[in-house]
Fold this sequence. Notes:
The protein has helices spanning 2-19, 28-54, 59-105, 107-120, 125-136, 139-149, 160-177, 181-185, 189-215, 219-245. Helix content is 84%, strand content 0%. The chain is elongated and about 80 Å long. It contains ten helices and no strands. The chain is mostly helical. Helix 2 runs antiparallel to helix 3 (59-105), helix 3 packs across helix 4 and helix 3 packs antiparallel against helix 7 (160-177). This is Vacuolar iron transporter. It is a multi-pass membrane protein.
Amino acid sequence: MAENGRLADLEKQKLLLQDHEEKHFTSSEVVRDIIIGVSDGLTVPFALAAGLSGADVSSSIILVAGIAEVAAGAISMGLGGYLAAKSEEDHYNRELKREQDEIIRVPDIEAAECAEILAQYGVESHEYEPVVNALRRNPQAWLDFMMKFELGLEKPNPMRALWSALTIAVSYVVGGMVPLMPYVAIPIADRAVMASVVITLVALLIFGYVKGRFTGNQPFNSALQTALIGAIASAAAYSIAKLVRA
């Protein structure tokens, strides 16, 4: 009877899990890469174009310099994202090897650490002892448990470095072309820079708002903060160019 009751409970739990769908956002790394790429792409070429406009050069020169900067910036930012992701992967693999060796060499110490982790979650000794014993019988599960709960490390996606590089680079290009668009249509730099300021500040406000929604910050504060940073950067570049030219 007891066995039948336990099986019935398990079936009930399975049905509950099938009916229950949790909506969690699980693409935080991709969003982070997009934020990095777009924010720098909007800000750096914007400041460069404003600075060159302050130096009284033609729109064509600003456009060529801006496109060159976007290309170089995308490559640089993408490479930086690739190296950062590869560093995380290498760190995980080193710690995985070290933890694997410790499970083999000093299993009792590792079991004690496992018990200590469970105790931190309020699990009593008579409750966690069967769990620890079950993990010891399954070395791979034990290793995964220690990596996640002792070291706080998640196994990285082997394609993470490449996708990070591509995401950041493409996002940088998309963001970088926004402040340069007016220089394509308007040959007079003084007029083009005003259009660039308006378009880019609107783009920064929208981007900042969306970023705030995804990151859990206040969207309006995020929008104003992002636009303010871009405005300060472009104003500084424009003023410095005017001072140098004078």
